[in-house]
């Protein structure tokens, strides 16, 4: 019983859901069976140790245990919970409610009420800030209902055929381009290949019919072109301008995805050596935080938190990032909160040259996350080197080398940290008066791949010229 579909769905319910389902099950419109109510109460109060015989007793049927009957009641309850979930979604979607109301009036041939409901639907949609694919599709559905009503009342009259077709085109184009962006982003990460379908026909069509004047179409068009042709900055600039000015047109999950696409593009450009993109990515981070686009149910990903700190440090916005680290600490998941906070603050203190404060933060913290631990060890490398604590640094490099050998790391990360250790050791042993040695080390640093600390290593060489 504890492994049933019913038990699984009940375990996923929130306390708010449970309170609402109690009311739902007690409504005679949806349920008239007391045994269904009794079973629900047993299962929500005994979620960890469900026993079929005990559940049957709670049904108060006053007869011997009957597994077939119990399964029947479980099936009723499962369907009712699914119905509640569907109704709950419907109640949160006013556009869908309005369409269902129109169709209910159609079944009753109430043409006057249909016309009123259609007009109300248009009014409500036009009040909304949203202008995404879903919005255009809802407009299309209302236009279609209006077309059907008017064609019945006046078959030879002037009907909205062209408007209907144009709206459907826009809804499709936004949806198709959004899907194309998701596919090409996935393709870039996982090196997979997709046939994205009609895009070769869509792009000329977009330009010929002025659909790029529709902001949501233009956003996804420039997003796709930006991802497909990362070297062409024109599309990034157009995408950025539209996204920062028209973000309110999209749903929460859409705008979050769009911002992440923009941020990931900037990070790739930075990794390719385009340092000017630190300022670009900070624009997205600041706007995304201000509008809460980067938060999901009030939670900020620890990876985004670390990336924001790194970008703000690179743009030397020390006061801003100091406030950010403290302000958004509470938005991190509890299990990562303290470690992410202390690591980020340590990085900031290091860049402020407050080495003692950075060392204290790094040495007192317990970084259970493997990559965060390695990030902290890398900051320690820099501090020991810049403080000329050579004995400490050599011991630390050897310990870090052994740590990497013991841990299972993804190839990219393992090679990166091995390169950092190896090149730091070479930096310690180099004769700065020997031009050939310096030239060879510069070449090693420039060609090592991957190497996240390339800039720091090159800077140490320059400081000793």
Describe this structure in words.
- The radius of gyration is 30 Å and the shape is flat.
- A hairpin with a 2-residue loop joins strand 1 and strand 2.
- It has a two-stranded antiparallel ribbon.
- It folds into 3 domains: 88 residues, no CATH class; 169 residues, no CATH class; 95 residues.
- It has 23 helices and 2 strands.
- Helix 15 runs antiparallel to helix 16.
- By secondary structure, the chain is mostly helical.
- Helices cover 74% and strands 1% of the residues.
- Fraction of helical residues: over 70%
- The number of distinct helices, counting runs of at least 4 residues, comes to 23
How far apart the termini lie comes to 74 Å
Mean pLDDT score: 92
- Low-pLDDT stretches are none
Strand arrangement within the widest β-sheet reads: 1-2
Shape: flat
Number of domains: 3
**Number of β-strand runs:** 2
Assembly state (oligomeric): single chain
Radius of gyration (Å): 30 Å
* H and E string: HHHHHHHHHHHHHHEEHHHHHHHHH
Secondary-structure-based class equals mainly alpha
* Beta-strand percentage range: under 5%
Largest sheet: 2 strands, antiparallel
Please outline the helices and strands.
Layout: H1 5-11, H2 15-25, H3 34-45, H4 52-58, H5 67-92, H6 94-107, H7 111-127, H8 133-153, H9 161-190, H10 199-208, H11 215-228, H12 233-246, H13 252-271, H14 277-290, E1 295-296, E2 299-300, H15 302-314, H16 318-327, H17 334-351, H18 355-364, H19 370-386, H20 390-406, H21 411-429, H22 435-447, H23 454-463
Antiparallel strand pairs: 1-2
